[in-house]
Automatic annotation (TrEMBL):
Keyword Plastid belongs to the record: no
GO molecular function: transmembrane transporter activity
A Gene Ontology term for the protein's cellular component: plasma membrane
Keyword line: Cell membrane, Membrane, Transmembrane, Transmembrane helix
Organism from which the protein derives: Rhodanobacter fulvus Jip2
Protein name as annotated: ABC3 transporter permease C-terminal domain-containing protein
Transmembrane segments: 283-307, 336-357, 369-387
Length: 405
């Protein structure tokens, strides 16, 4: 199959060819970036929280004076632990996918803004919280009884803490973090261990790199650590246990107010937190399907129009010896050239669109491998779309040429 006659035919139909090529280019740009966004959102939804989500729930109360924190904690811990099926109840300041309570910037030096590490989430938990969460220690040691100290302000002073592996790799790349010191202004912390995973309360707000920059700080309940309780039960019993715990609050501490919205299982908190991301994924998939469908219809319409216009030409070629395969290959090659031109332009548009998204929505750069994947999809779509009209063209009998004379 020679390309020159095909190009000559396309030059005689410049406008139609340009319109289809522009449609393919737009589809290429949208396809690459929309697929990239879908993958980014999907990765975020699949984040490993590091905790035993199926067995955990959180119950939050408020409306009490800070001076009543110790009394509220004592009442709530005693009352909630008496619920049948409750395995443990501990005090915590935040959980993955719940309200954020402990984000702060940290650095390698006290009071320094030059040698910074970044903004991390501080998870403050009372005795038994580490075990209840189901965290996995990968290096160092677990908190001991004397590691739990009262928080004088934001957190206990000179606290021995656990850091997530993601934070350790970021703060001390290529080094063991054990025994390393870091500061939150002048508040000092020392690393005693590393946990495999521990997600932030709001991972969505920090990008994929920093979703697990967390510090678990053993803290004695009281003061600022009050009102939020981590409940652990058998996964089959957890919905009932949480329901009974919510109902029991009015009897345990009548003067507090139950936070209905944030008193849920961790699984439900995750589902609510990522609800908008799932909607966005559905919308993007809808945009991809619609764009590809419109592009395919455009190719089918143009190919059908050209087949109708070229029936006499096709009949003449058949009369002088062209086979059905020759006719089919002609239209498929013609479509391939048009789609290829659109793809080349579309790759440039894809990067331009990605730069715009990076500037306004802080997205990472589009990986290069999305471009050949998008090209393959559009080449395949083009060949499938032109197949029907091409088969009809190949079926034109040679007698059509003689009837037109």
């Amino acid at each position: 199959m020679q390309i020159r006659p095909i190009l000559a035919a396309l030059r005689r139909h410049r406008l139609a060819t340009l319109l289809i090529a522009m449609e393919v280019a737009l589809a290429c740009a949208v396809l690459c970036n929309a697929c990239f966004l879908v993958v980014q959102r999907w990765k975020l939804i699949q984040i490993h929280s590091g905790v035993d989500e199926s067995a955990l729930a959180v119950l939050t109360v408020n409306g009490f004076d800070p001076s009543q924190a110790a009394d509220v904690n004592a009442r709530m811990l005693t009352g909630l632990r008496s619920i049948p099926g409750m395995q443990s109840v501990t005090v915590i300041n935040q959980v993955p996918f719940g309200p954020q309570a402990g984000a702060a910037g940290v650095s390698h030096d006290p009071g320094s803004f030059k040698n910074t590490i970044g903004v991390v989430d501080f998870v403050l938990g009372g005795p038994g919280t580490y075990e209840a969460l189901g965290l996995k220690l990968v290096e160092g040691r677990l908190p001991q009884a004397d590691d739990y100290r009262p928080a004088t302000n934001f957190a206990p002073p000179d606290a021995q803490v656990l850091v997530s592996r993601a934070l350790a790799d970021h703060a001390w790349p290529g080094e063991s973090p054990l025994g390393k010191d870091f500061w939150c202004d002048k508040l000092h912390f020392r690393v005693m261990g590393v946990v495999d995973h521990l997600a932030r309360a709001h991972p969505h707000d920090w990008g994929t790199q920093a979703t697990e920059w967390t510090v678990f700080t053993p803290t004695l309940p009281g003061g600022s650590l009050a009102g939020t309780y981590l409940l652990r039960a058998n996964p089959h019993d957890l919905p009932r246990v949480l329901h009974e715990a919510r109902d029991a609050v009015a009897k345990i501490a009548p003067h507090v107010v139950l936070d209905q919205e944030n008193s849920q299982t961790i699984g439900d908190l995750r589902a609510d937190y990522f609800k908008s991301d799932r909607i966005m994924i559905d919308l993007l998939i809808g945009v991809i399907v619609t764009m590809l469908g419109v592009t395919a219809l455009g190719i089918v319409g143009l190919a059908s129009f050209w087949v109708q216009q070229r029936r006499r030409q096709i009949g003449i070629r058949r009369a002088i010896g062209a086979t059905r395969t020759d006719i089919l290959r002609y239209f498929q090659t013609e479509n391939f050239l048009i789609v290829t031109g659109g793809i080349v332009l579309g790759m440039a548009l894809a990067y331009a669109l990605n730069l715009l998204l990076m500037q306004h929505y802080e997205l990472p750069r589009l990986p290069v491998y999305y471009l050949p994947i998008g090209a393959l999809v559009l080449w395949g779509l083009g060949q499938l779309a032109v197949l029907g009209p091409a088969l009809r063209a190949a079926a034109v009998p040679p007698v059509v040429a003689t009837r037109s004379v």
